[in-house]
Amino acid sequence: VAGSSTGLVMKTGEEAYERYEDGVAMQVSDAELHEHEERAHQFSKIMYALGAASFVCLLCVWLKPGWVSACAVVVLVLCVLSFASGLYIANAGGKIVRPHFINAEDAIYKDGYDHDAHDHDGHDDHDH
Question: Cα-flanking dihedrals φ and ψ of residue 88, to 5°?
Fold first, then answer.
C-alpha cells in the first residue's frame, strides 16, 4: 500500500507546491518548500522500490515459493527505510507554515473568541 500510494502522494504534493508558489497559501520560505520537495523527490525512490519488491514477493508466493523468505527480508528492509525516509521528508514538510496549523497560543479565531483565555470547561482563566 505504501509503495503504490507514493505516486498519488507525490502528485498531491506537487499540486500543493504550485498553490504555495502562486501565493494562494500563506507566505512561506522558498528554502523550506524547496527542501521538502527535494527530499520527497530523492527519497520517494525507496518507496517505489518497496512497492515493486512487495509485488515481486507476492508473485514469488505462487511462482517461486522458495524465494519468499529472501523477498520478505528485502521487503522488510525497504519498509524500514521507507518509514525512516518518510519521517525525514515529513520533518522538512513540518517546517512549512500552513494556515490551518497556526499555533493555538497565538490564534484568535474568526469568531473573535480567544480560545486560549478559557479553560476546557468554558470558564475564563481569571475566574478560578
Answer: -65, -45
